Amino acid sequence: QVQLVESGGGLVQPGGSLRLSCAASGFPFDTSVSWYRQAPGKEREWVASITRSNGNTYYTDSVKGRFTISRDNNKKTAYLQMNSLKSKDTAVYSCKVQHLGRDYWGQGTQVTVSS
Prior knowledge:
Elements: E1 3-7, E2 10-12, E3 18-25, E4 33-38, E5 45-50, E6 57-59, E7 67-72, E8 77-82, E9 91-99, E10 102-105, E11 109-113
Parallel strand pairs: 2-11
Antiparallel strand pairs: 1-3, 3-8, 4-5, 4-9, 5-6, 7-8, 9-10, 9-11
């Protein structure tokens, strides 16, 4: 079955960096991958996406220039490199793929930006 497992979250000071990973299994990984986040008391927000075919990347405005999404198709893993982190980036980060018309989500990884 399709599985997505995120890792790499943690506590970091403002201005710091983290790299999140999304390890996929159970399908060919021949699809776009997206990262979302949900802060306490807020709705889930789309953060970034990367296509399968040509690796085009897309970002929400608030993370442009700070976050970088990438993928390693051989490892079936997507990444979210987060630099210059701010307190407002604090959230649970989840990856999502679509396979055979259905959305699949990982369990999420907590990112806390605090001094």
